[in-house]
Design goal:
The chain is 78% helix and 0% strand. It has 271 residues and is an all-alpha fold.
């Protein structure tokens, strides 16, 4: 009994330490975003100050960060939809025919350094006159979202009883109809998980947007580096930008966290 109690207290202490390490940077950024600009980088730091919105007023009033945020939503949303649209039939076919090498090939593409793709893409899209458009960013970010969606959806389709699809085909359903009306509803939890992960990965990705975006299509995470200079850094606006960038994935996850946890657990069991 004594050993169990000591083990339980050790677990609680370790959990508290981990939560503290995770929470301190988040709380620090959040507090700094609402501090006066002169207090953000003060040493020693001021923990208790009168909150102000001047950093957010400067962020959205004096810069194009609102448009940059909209660009991020367009790119992340578009690449997520494209990744799911391609991954759903692909993972269904892999599971149905019991193929693993295509999924492995897409994983290799995801693990390769992003710089490996940049020069060919830049030259190709420049020749086509598409550099700097939302379409280019959506297409390139699909390299991020497609492997993620495939590997999340694959266990769901592999665990799905083949009798369901075969029964639909006996009733006259085509392969596309069997996928849309039978397989996708069964894999709905996996689709939710894949959508969240794809959106977050695309939203946070920096390299492709840095090189391939234009002035009017610059994403929020790229635009935030405008506040960092060689001699002076606008810490207040940078902290406000960090809060805005972190908000959409966090809000999305909180809204559907139950389905997210259930989907991940189901995928782990089915895989």
């Amino acid at each position: 009994m004594v050993g169990r109690r000591i083990g339980a207290w050790v677990d609680r202490v370790m959990l508290a330490l981990v939560l503290t390490l995770l929470a301190v940077p988040v709380v620090w950024v959040l507090l700094s975003a609402f501090k006066p600009r002169t207090e953000v980088a003060a040493l020693p730091p001021h923990l208790f100050v009168r909150p102000t919105l001047e950093n957010f007023v400067e962020l959205f009033g004096r810069t194009d960060f609102g448009q940059n945020t909209l660009n991020s939503l367009i790119v992340a949303g578009g690449s997520t939809l494209l990744g799911l649209a391609l991954a759903a039939p692909a993972s269904f076919a892999m599971a149905w025919h019991r193929l693993s090498w295509p999924a492995t090939a897409t994983l290799f593409a995801r693990m390769a350094p992003g710089a490996l793709f940049l020069l060919p893409w830049f030259l190709m899209f420049s020749d086509l006159g598409l550099t700097g458009s939302h379409l280019v960013l959506i297409l390139t970010h699909a390299v991020i979202t497609l492997p993620v969606a495939i590997w999340v959806l694959l266990p769901y389709f592999e665990a799905m009883p083949r009798d369901l699809v075969e029964s639909a085909q006996v009733d006259g359903a085509s392969s596309v109809q069997a996928l849309v009306k039978v397989a996708l509803p069964v894999a709905a939890p996996g689709i939710v998980v894949a959508a969240i992960l794809c959106f977050v990965f695309s939203w946070n990705y920096f390299l492709f947007a840095l090189v391939l975006s234009g002035f009017d299509t610059k994403t929020a995470i790229v635009a935030s580096f405008n506040f960092v200079g060689e001699g002076v850094t606008n810490w207040g606006a940078l902290m406000a930008a960090a809060v805005v960038i972190a908000a959409p994935p966090l809000i999305l996850t909180l809204i559907i966290q139950r389905r997210l946890v259930a989907g991940l657990a189901a995928g782990a069991v089915k895989g």
